[in-house]
Amino acid sequence: MANLGLFSGTKSVNVRFRLPYYTQWGQSLVVSGSESVLGAWNVKNGLLLSPVHEGDELLWCGTIAVPSGFESEYSYYVVDDNKNVLRSEVGNKRKLLLPQGIEDGILVELHDLWQTGADTLPFRSAFKDVIFRRSFTLKVERPLGVIENKLDNEDSIIVHFKICSPNIEEGTSIYVVGSSTKLGQWKIEGGLKLSYSGESIWHVDCVLPKAHFPIKYPWENAGNFSLETGPTRDLSLESSNAKPGYIVLSDGMVRETSWRGAGVAIPMFSIRSETDLGVGEFLDLKLLVDWAVQSGFHLVQLLPINDTSVHGMWWDSYPYSSLSVFALHPLYLRVQALSGNIPQDIKVEIEKAKEQLDGKDVDYEATLTTKLSIARKVFAQEKELILNSSSFQEFFSENEDWLKPYAAFCFLRDFFETSDHSQWGRFSHYSKDKLEKLVAKERLHYDVICFHYYIQYHLHLQLSEAADYARKKGVILKGDLPIGVDRNSVDTWVYPNLFRMNTSTGAPPDYFDKNGQNWGFPTYNWEEMSKENYAWWRGRLAQMANYFTAYRIDHILGFFRIWELPEHAMTGLVGKFRPSIPLSQEELEREGIWDFDRLSRPYIQQQFLQDKFGVSWSFIASKFLNEYQKNRYEFKEDCNTEKKIASKLKSLSEMSLLENENKIRLDLFDLLRNIVLIRDPEDPRKFYPRFNLEDTSSFEDLDEHSKNVLKRLYYEYYFHRQENLWRQNALKTLPVLLNSSDMLACGEDLGLIPSCVHPVMQELGLIGLRIQRMPSEPGLEFGIPSQYSYMTVCAPSCHDCSTLRAWWEEDEERRQRYFKTVVGSDLLPPSRCVPDVAHFIIKQHVDAPSMWAIFPLQDLLALKEKYTTRPATEETINDPTNPKHYWRYRVHVTLESLIEDKELITTIKDLVRGSGRSHPGGETESQVKLESAVSTEKQPVANGKEKIPLVSESHGAPKKDLLAVR
After folding, report:
1. Contact status, residue 404 vs residue 410, Cβ threshold 8 Å
2. Which of 78, 320, 848, 852 has the fewest CB atoms lying closer than 10 Å?
3. Cα 135 → chain centroid
4. What spans are recorded as compositionally biased (Basic and acidic residues) (predicted)?
């Protein structure tokens, strides 16, 4: 305990911290806070707590002496023996406010619960500003720190009950009742009514005789007697002699039935309206929001919307390869909204463009060219008016840190006719001085620079208008955070130190591609990013928060580890995880592995060549290989990488020396990847086992001892060796993202998932993704939505796979297995995904326990026969096996038509309502938590009889005067 003499001449109060928490061996808990007595946020100087066993609980306790009226913020931390932080609480800092007038020497005991990421979710903007927004406007009735009672005698204790309930209607009350006579002896009439203190905290204090302890209590609804879910809470005194005079009981959240919602997902470019020019536009989101509200959806999910104009061609349709992580894509601009005074000739041009661009799919190049051409004409007419307006000036001052480099980059890209900034001569290397000269007003090209400002300004206005509209309608707008940026982007130009430009990112072989994926992005230099506390990431998230209230973290595994490939790779198979602990040469030698060249170089025998290339094998060998031993070959220097092979094949094909270039390329790639170990290019004494090494003939020709050793080391490398390293890596980076904004975060956690991922996501309050055809549970072909955990988004498909209709119709045997396993029928399933099939699958998902059920719009359209005339394969958004896939899918029906289709809307809304999920404007919106799934655990009462919590059966308007019984 701290020295009481510290406060000589003033009243001092003893504060005991008390937290139940189970730790691993070598871990301890520390309290650190804003005041010096708690270390002034230096955890190493914080208060080290001691473990105490109380029954089945492990409590961590510690005491300090502070002056009367002491105030401080504080948090709990898990530390190692050297007080290095291993993990910390998530969410807002706690507040310690000692009430005035506490007697000298009194003991105040703080009963706290560890705050997890899930506890913070109601305070994310998705809920606080959209779903529960009315709850956060309640008036403060009594601030924290104001205690209404005084101690009667030494045989009593003042207990200060505190509880968080973020979803409370105006006019609603929360009560605490319990086993003590002071708490009504389980009778609502004698319970204590709590006061609202702001920030969703409710509190009340009362004097309880020590003889009444231990006390049991839940929380209850006064209007319709709804108890909180879960077991009865307990309040007991510790067995130590020092009994507190005050107990501040912070009980976390009211345990309500979990809130559940539904949403629709569609790429921005896929939306079709009667107003757009060939592609979905930001202002179309208002129509989509209207349709979502009518259909019972609380969420609209998009793919990335950043500018991707890198190549100046249709390749730029790939939305995950951003030119700038801050700039919005000009593709989504509504040119009609640029001005209220568009000349008639431009209006005619716009109408003509609407007809020409209104195709089945997006014509990326024509659409973008047309929009920019029209925008330049409007800009020429009104540039002085806009650029001198206060609105533009405000936008510019708030965004100039990224806006100036972006505009300069676009100018240089067009001037040099390439985004490869290494080809820009003296402008290849970015500097602030060069930038300011490029964007200076006296430059002849200043109008070109300003045009890019102008476009971004209007994109900002239009997306902001749509985002504000969504918030007011109770609809969350969910964005997408790509894991990478294009190699030739504004970000790699301005911040080259933040990227490992000699590498490429991707994913190991999985459901999407047996050869892995190579996305082409440079990997991140996390060490450099950490030096500025990840400022680039923080800025990125803050920018997204201007428009979105939720976001999807693309490939969240990249924040644990990334699949890193050499820059010269084209496929994604021969990579390694970064960070990871490699196999050292010494380690391998101890295991009896010596021939490292044999294991790490392509293993190519003459027989392999004859098998792959037939009679052409000698010609292929002469062009690509050298025979360095009898019947053993190696690749020539000019074709010893995938990119070199592709380049040489192209030149040979142009000379008409080859037939079937694609097959030859794949076969040569197979030979190049016929290795067992990957040698680290930065340290030749370190190695990484090649993914699926047992599938290679190089492995197959090894002796049995080497095979057994390498199989064991392979399994250990991929499934055990890295877990702690990856966990620590994620806990360094992900909290920075989550704390950079108040958006709700979801993580795309599909693919090869290390065992450390889901515990970290749970700890940080990150919501995972579940796709039925890609179950995370081993041994299942199809996921079981009814068994999904609450902290998930469930969906029948996503943009990276075929739609529900296409998936159903593409494989007859799989369709039959699904019908038997999931539907439970031995009948022959329909060959087409008829509306009844779609209805069954969608109902499975809305009924799931998952917090969110989010459906691609294509899957929802399958609920009605009239929308299934288009071939199902044409509704696929992305083909992950094709690195040059054209992202161009457009919905074949306009939003205006969907809004008029009341039959489809009714079908969808009935599914949402029938599942008990919240929906905008619905009777379950504010009080769904009180209507179902309340604990049926029996509650004891003072007379020894049992009482079962009552639940309102009403599904009408929310009851007032609600009671939470604690």
Report:
1. no
2. 78
3. 25
4. 956-966
Which string of DSSP letters, residue by residue, matches 400-460?
HHHHHHHHHHHHHHHHHT-S-GGGSGGGSS--HHHHHHHT-TTSTTHHHHHHHHHHHHHHH
CA dihedral 130, 134, 135, 139 (to 10 degrees): 140
Domain tally for the chain?
3
CA distance 284 to 304: 16
What pLDDT, on the 0 to 100 scale, is given for residue 401? 97
- Percent of the chain at pLDDT > 70 equals 93
Instruction: Mark whether 286 and 242 lie in a shared domain.
Output: no
Instruction: Provide the terminal-to-terminal Cα distance of the chain, rounded to the nearest Å.
Output: 32
Which of 692, 707, 722 is a domain's end point? 707
Distance CA 587, CA 596 (A): 12
Whether the predicted pLDDT of 728 surpasses 50: yes
Question: So what's the pLDDT on residue 10?
Answer: 57
Please check whether residues 234 and 279 belong to one and the same domain: no
Please choose, from the candidates 332, 292, 328, 308, the residue with its C-alpha nearest in 3D space to the C-alpha of residue 855. Answer: 292
Does the CA dihedral 25-249-927-175 come out positive or negative? positive
Instruction: Return mean pLDDT, the chain.
Output: 89
Residue 479: its pLDDT value, please?
Answer: 98
Q: Tell me the C-alpha distance between 109 and 54, whole Å.
A: 16
The two three-digit tokens of residue 46, written as one number: 């914080």
User: Does any domain span residue 902?
Assistant: no
Residue 893 within a domain: no
Q: Is a pLDDT exceeding 70 seen at residue 824?
A: yes
Give the contacts of 910 (CB within 8 A, at least 6 positions apart).
none
182 with 268, same domain? no
The domain that contains 127 carries what CATH number? 2.60.40.10
Q: What are the tokens at 676?
A: 């067992």
Q: Buried (b) or exposed (e) across 153-187, using 16+ Cβ within 10 A? A: eeebbbbbbbbbbbbbbeebbbbbbbbbebbbebe
Q: In this predicted structure, which of 210-219, 635-644, 802-811, 858-867 has the lowest mean pLDDT?
A: 210-219
Tally of CB atoms within 10 A around 871: 10
- pLDDT category, 181, cuts 50, 70, 90? confident
Per residue in 129-166, pLDDT (tens digit) is 999 887 777 888 888 878 888 877 778 888 999 988 88
Hey, is 264 helix, strand or coil?
Answer: strand
Q: How confident is the model at residue 267 (pLDDT cuts 50, 70, 90)?
A: very high
List pLDDT tens digits, range 455-496.
999 999 999 999 999 999 999 999 999 999 999 999 999 999
pLDDT digits over 609-636, tens only? Answer: 999 999 999 999 999 999 999 999 999 9
Whether 221 and 271 map to the same domain: the answer is no
When mean pLDDT is compared over 91-100, 239-248, 437-446, the highest value belongs to: 437-446
Joined together, the tokens standing for residue 88 give 């910390």
Element (H, E) at 666: helix 661-672
- Averaged over 877-881, what is the pLDDT? 90
CA distance 791 to 761: 9
How confident is the model over 946-966, as a mean pLDDT?
A: 29
Is there a domain that residue 285 lies in? yes
pTM: 0.89
Dihedral pair phi/psi, residue 159, rounded to 5° = -105, 125
Distance separating alpha carbons of residues 721 and 756, to the nearest angstrom: 11
Long-range own/partner contacts, residues 427-436 (CB < 8 A, 24 or more apart):
430/405, 430/493, 430/494, 430/496, 435/404, 435/405, 435/408, 436/404
For residues 317-342, average pLDDT: 97
Which domain does 401 fall in, by range? 262-480
119, part of any domain: yes
Q: Rounded to the nearest 5°, which phi and psi values hold at 301?
A: -110, 135
Last residue of a domain, one of 253, 274, 298: 253
CB 558, CB 757: distance < 8 Å? no
Beta bridge partners of 503: 566
